[in-house]
């Protein structure tokens, strides 16, 4: 038996275990895509998606919305020197600590039946930036307070006070620092009172019960200003977010929880309030009429060229207003139907049988060409045999009956119906014997020499030629390149030595 020390010292192997999964021996199934399976799939998807898309559009259109943009609303309490109203955006840009109030009157054209929700919307605000998303301390949000916070919160992790003392920020990070701080209220002219709004029930229960917890004890003592600093852009401490409701205060404040769930796109909306339908006059929802939006303006958007808006909205069976999903379903269904119809026409016009498709091999096209060639060759051999038997009339008659497409041609020509072969008969013609005799070459009289060559030929042979001409002739005679016949420089420089056996 091997001791434990010896077994631990054995080298570990990287060989996978002998299992069907790791050795890739699992059974596989690959469907054969034929017209009988693909075309019904297209039609089923088209028939199913179009009604679903119409239903989604119907429920989306049932949702009623009213949007009010208050980015550049005029201030009620601050004016220019000449008495003209000043926009709250300019007031906040000059001094962020100033309080600016503005009001916007609007008309609700129809009754908003059922539950009504108030949202705030921002544009050009990139909550999906990587550093912004990571800029938080999850332990701190769980109520685990410490003098040392996560490095991800930098540069919103610590604050240097007047006494040069470094204090951690609670809650730290860029997300908490940029908390939406505008206060929105609605006034109903019809009921002569403010619309009752609920601050709770706007966050996900999983976030409120799991991800965000308050430390034990009194919040004011836990987040004491002597120990923790508030975020730089906040006007109040965390224990002052909702002092009238202890369950909605501190880190469990639902406005904070909603804001900490970052948006995926730069244009987004977040739930701000719920209309309290238990109050008389608002039990059926918001009735049509004149309303006034009152804003305590403190969240600046001019730095990133953004905009702010307030949205009143109802809901449907499928949630809020979202026409994109219904349009997407209808478009995909229509595309599938069009493709199904087009492919069906192509299949009916140009398709082959299922047996031919199943028996297709890499050599199928070659085999078809071979069979066609053998058929034509056998026909040609048959015709050639008939011709040799001096039965050309019968041959033409036989092929003409089978392939009757030679009526406009001479009777000695046979044309097949596929127009790939034409057979012509050329009967043997008599050839006179005198035409088969060789033609005598006429010999001209030359100079009286043995070699029968002229003086010019002799001079060309015995004249001194240039090295380049000699090399060219040698390369032609030996079928080699001209470089074979150039003298090598190493032979010129080589030392000349006598051979040890000159007789060889």
Automatic annotation (TrEMBL):
Membrane topology: Multi-pass membrane protein
One Pfam family from the record: CDC50
Location of the protein in the cell: Membrane
Chain ranges passing through the membrane: 32-59, 324-346
Region (Disordered): 1-22
Keyword Transmembrane attributed: yes
Superkingdom of this protein's organism: Eukaryota
Sequence ranges of Polar residues compositional bias: 1-11
InterPro entries assigned: CDC50/LEM3_fam (IPR005045), Ribosomal_mL42 (IPR019346)
GO cellular-component term (any): Golgi apparatus
Keywords, sorted A to Z: Membrane, Transmembrane, Transmembrane helix
Protein family membership: Belongs to the CDC50/LEM3 family.
Record protein name field: P4-ATPase flippase complex beta subunit TMEM30A
Species the sequence originates in: Odynerus spinipes
């Amino acid at each position: 038996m091997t001791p434990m020390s010896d077994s631990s010292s054995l080298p570990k192997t990287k060989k996978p275990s002998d299992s069907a999964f790791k050795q890739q021996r699992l059974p596989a199934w690959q469907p054969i895509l034929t017209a009988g399976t693909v075309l019904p799939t297209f039609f089923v998807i088209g028939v199913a998606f179009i009604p679903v898309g119409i239903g989604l559009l119907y429920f989306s259109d049932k949702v009623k919305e009213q949007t009010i943009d208050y980015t550049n609303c005029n201030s009620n309490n601050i004016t220019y020197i000449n008495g003209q109203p000043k926009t709250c955006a300019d007031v906040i840009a000059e001094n962020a600590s100033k309080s600016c109030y503005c009001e916007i009157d609007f008309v609700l054209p129809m009754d908003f039946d059922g539950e009504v929700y108030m949202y705030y919307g921002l544009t050009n605000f990139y909550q999906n930036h990587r550093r912004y998303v990571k800029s938080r301390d999850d332990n701190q949000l769980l109520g685990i307070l410490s003098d040392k916070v996560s490095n991800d919160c930098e540069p919103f992790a610590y604050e240097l006070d007047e006494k040069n003392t470094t204090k951690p920020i609670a809650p730290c990070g860029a997300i908490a620092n940029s908390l939406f701080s505008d206060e929105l209220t609605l006034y109903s002219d019809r009921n002569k009172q403010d619309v009752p709004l609920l601050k709770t029930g706007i966050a996900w229960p999983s976030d409120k019960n799991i991800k965000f917890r308050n430390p034990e004890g009194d919040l004011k003592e836990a987040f004491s200003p002597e120990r923790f600093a508030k975020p730089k852009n906040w006007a109040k401490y965390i224990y002052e977010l909702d002092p009238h409701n202890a369950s909605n205060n501190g880190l469990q404040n639902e406005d904070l929880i909603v804001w900490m769930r970052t948006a995926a796109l730069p244009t987004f909306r977040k739930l701000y309030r719920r209309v309290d339908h238990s109050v008389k006059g608002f039990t059926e929802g918001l009735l049509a009429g004149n309303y006034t939006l009152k804003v305590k303006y403190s969240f600046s958007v001019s730095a990133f060229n953004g905009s702010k808006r307030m949205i009143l909205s109802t809901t449907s069976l499928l949630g809020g207003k979202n026409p994109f999903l219904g349009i997407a379903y209808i478009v995909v269904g229509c595309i599938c139907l069009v493709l199904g119809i087009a492919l069906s026409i192509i299949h009916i016009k140009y398709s082959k049988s299922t047996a031919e498709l199943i028996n297709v091999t890499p050599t199928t096209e070659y085999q078809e060409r071979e069979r066609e060639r053998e058929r034509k060759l056998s026909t040609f051999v048959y015709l050639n045999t008939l011709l040799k038997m001096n039965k050309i009339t019968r041959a033409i008659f036989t092929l003409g009956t089978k392939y009757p497409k030679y009526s406009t041609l001479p009777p000695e020509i046979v044309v097949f119906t596929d127009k790939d072969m034409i057979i012509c008969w050329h009967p043997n013609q008599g050839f006179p014997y005198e035409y088969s005799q060789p033609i005598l070459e006429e010999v001209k009289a030359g100079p009286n020499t043995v070699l029968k060559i002229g003086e010019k030929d002799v001079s060309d042979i015995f004249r001194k030629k240039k090295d380049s001409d000699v090399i060219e002739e040698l390369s032609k005679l030996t079928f080699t390149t001209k470089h074979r016949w150039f003298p090598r420089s190493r032979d010129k420089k080589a030392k000349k030595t006598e051979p040890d056996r000159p007789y060889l």
